[in-house]
């Protein structure tokens, strides 16, 4: 959608994004097959199918947010706020909008994945924490010692992206609870020199963190749904 608005050709899924989309699409198809076969009177399969399709949309929206942020970042040339033209100020504002939309979506998507995993594997994470996150679900796998192959995969993926996730979490928390994330650096610079020009934050570094967050989400989805698809087929043959 955003690519069309920006005059760009439609996305062709590839790499980790395509793997994640394909694995989720396979799960949605398996769930539809079970709905038709067993009539799904308690609507459990239907619920999981809707959640899976929701994750497909969430990943699509996250990737589009990253793409749009990267698109507008290329149009920001000045290194200081005071040196921007009015057009460049608008492009910077659009970069900030899509970048913030992106890092908020990283954690929203992971929490939705946690909800699906909690339901698929009867983890009862809500008994540990009423409003649980994806990371609470990962801990619950280890507490219950259930599906440890999947749990270890997901934990390894999380650990390999520790630094960019921490950076994104700090900005997400600042944005939601304290101040606009892009203004944190402005405040720090004002402490150093009240009348100095405000230098822009590290736009490329921030975008790289968002790209890493997108990759981490794709790999987590691929691992979770790849494992679940195998489990589903194995149980169907039993």
Automatic annotation (TrEMBL):
<dbReference type="InterPro" id="IPR041394">
    <property type="entry name" value="HEPN_Cthe2314"/>
</dbReference>
<protein>
    <recommendedName>
        <fullName>Cthe-2314-like HEPN domain-containing protein</fullName>
    </recommendedName>
</protein>
<feature type="domain" description="Cthe-2314-like HEPN">
    <location>
        <begin position="51"/>
        <end position="228"/>
    </location>
</feature>
<dbReference type="Pfam" id="PF18730">
    <property type="entry name" value="HEPN_Cthe2314"/>
</dbReference>
